[in-house]
Amino acid sequence: MVQLTPEAAARHDEAERQPLPLQEAKAWMSNKEREDGNMLAEITGADFDRALRILRRHDGDMDKAANSLLNGGEVEETAADRARERELAEVKESFAHLFPDPPKSKPETPNVVIDLTGDDDDAPTTTRFRATTRSPDPAWQMTIATPNNKKSEEEQLKEVMEASWADFTADESDEMRPEDTGLREGGRPIALRADVPTKAYAALIIHALFHVPQVRQRVSKLHLHLIDGAPPLVNPDWALWALIEMFTALDIGRINVYLDEELLTAWEAPQLGAGDEVGRASKVFLERVTNTVQKELDAQQVEVGSTTTKLFHFTHCSVHVPATGSPERVDEQDVGFVVEVQVGGTHNSIANNTDSAPVCGPATKDGVNPTLGNGANGTHGDSGKSSNVANDLTTRLSQTLNSYAPDGSSTHQLIQRASEVVAFEIVVAPSFSSFSNTSTSNIDAGKSGNAAPPEPLAFPATLHMDQFLDANLDLANETRAAEGVVRREMGVLASRRRVLVGFEGQDTLGNLRGAIEYYEHVAACDSPERLTTLRRMAGKLRNVLAKMEGEVREIDAKLASLQRELDGLWENPELKCHPYDLRAVLVHTGLPGRKGIYSYVRDSATGTWWKTVDYTVTEVSEDQVLTDPAGLHLGAGPYMLLYSRRQSEAEAGEPVQWPPIFVDRVENNNAMVLEGVRPQIEIPVPVGVGAAREGAAMDLS
């Protein structure tokens, strides 16, 4: 602390008692008035000139000026204010010679007196600070809450993808160590590993098909084709032979992983190129396998009887329902297996449908939506409109397979005879397709992207196919119409609620509570009249707040009631007769390599879910399967879903008997494993097949 001599202290006290020079006093008053005017304008939202005028009217009293601005007092005193301004102007003009302005070129520097004693540090001040109860104003934020700054979005996307790339480079290794192979633990599935990383997608398809119980049961009934007692040398018999042999090994084998070199070669699985999409390549390979197996099942008449459904192929047709009259078929029936489902796309929204059109049916220009079957590209409505319906598998299927015209007519893709198994290819919208390639160019391509990742598709553990069957057309249309009415009513209520609680992006209710807090606890009260005014304003605001809160509660209750009604529309027992259970999910992280794709498969005996990444198999929960977010930030994610019809206990308990020739080979391999001798873990190929492979033309069409 600085110690002053008695003489210096006396001079300091004398200087403090002397009045400020005239020019310094005028400058001090002008600066203070400007600061108070700025603060008043910021608090009340008024412009600076208006705030300064009201402040002068109240002789610099901030509380009175603020109340006057908030209560609209300026309107009542406009005439008096103008008269006062005229009087001030006349005084300045008459006595201007008594107040000469200092030269602008040499402004006087005020004599600043620095108080080093600190005696007045604890002196009370008139400024009071309180925690605000007002919602933040986006215009005054340092960083906008929802910026449309392209650079910021690019930087965030770059950081996310660089983090994913770092994880990929840290974990990706195509080498498999000898100690990675061992005994199969309990009921843990056996992993199937392709000989090269570019065929890993095909190995996942074979692995997923094996874990569908109907596939194992039907394929095990196929008779092997032998040529003079020897294994087949040409396709498709060679491919079927290798498939059944691998299924046998995956079922009763004791080793934890099989390294395949011949199975995928027999099926002529193409290697995945740098620019190829995993989902599309998987669809093509899956159709090749299923078409060949289904053709062989038909040839051997394994699926006989009027009640027996085909394993893979379902029959479907297109039906047009006019506004008046009977439905009519617009094309012949066809067969299909893989159904394309687009996510992150631009389907027509609820608001784009007419009042008579069900909510799930987007109107198209030609009234046709040909996407049922082998994944043909369909019409998804006007590309310039966004969807605001639920992004789940059932809703997307309904949008894809049903289209409604404004004239009241509709066109439907209907299943006439269902199959035991159905596959869904999840196709990411074109706006995100640049992220779905398997090459490392994904990382560079994503840096310039400005679109947010698509909303993840929600798919159920059990899918009821009844609403898509030909026999349920009328009932399904009635239910969709009722659903459309409910959704439109919910949309109106939700819009009204948004206006009440968030007008122009502000927290309306929060601002009202903040204003009430100000009138009751912050505003100065220096007279009975002032107290009466404050109480009256607070009471009015409380009445408004209570009315708005009551309306919001009523809307919430109505929305909850409508949601229950909406959930119950599809609980009709007549639409719950054909349940299909989820059996396998294939996922792409958006990154290249073996570990960039993996699968979830369900053990039909225990209901346990298993995740297979390369040769590693781990147990996971069903919730993880249904909500895995991997790959979404790169426009990837789940790309293939396999469902199969729910089996009865008798059907599920049907024994699977594999050909003895394959059972013996696998048992011998198991014995070698148990004896501690490391076997050649590739599935052996019959003698002569390898040489014949070069000249064998594979025709799986």
List low-confidence stretches: 102-118, 123-127, 143-150, 346-371, 373-388, 432-451, 679-701
| End-to-end CA span | 97 Å
Q: State the secondary-structure class.
A: alpha+beta
Helical content class: 40-55%
Shape: elongated
In DSSP terms, counting alpha (H) and pi (I) runs of 4 or more, how many helices? Answer: 21
* Count of distinct strands: 15
Largest sheet: 8 strands, mixed
Radius of gyration: 38 Å
Overall pLDDT, averaged?
76
- How much of the sequence is in beta strands? 5-15%
Task: Offer a few descriptive terms.
alpha+beta; 8-stranded mixed β-sheet; 15 strands; 41% helix; Ucp6/RUP1
Question: Please, could you describe this protein's structure?
Answer:
GO terms for molecular function: cysteine-type deubiquitinase activity. InterPro entries: Papain-like_cys_pep_sf, Peptidase_C19_UCH, Ucp6/RUP1. The N and C termini lie far apart (97 Å). The model is unreliable at 102-118, 123-127, 143-150, 346-371, 373-388, 432-451 and 679-701 (pLDDT under 50). The chain has 701 residues and is an alpha+beta fold. The strands form three sheets. Strands 6, 9, 10, 11, 12, 13, 14 and 15 form an eight-stranded mixed sheet that branches. Strands 3, 4, 5, 7 and 8 form a five-stranded antiparallel sheet that branches. The protein contains 21 helices and 15 strands. Among the domains are: 6-123, no CATH class; 314-418, no CATH class; 493-569.
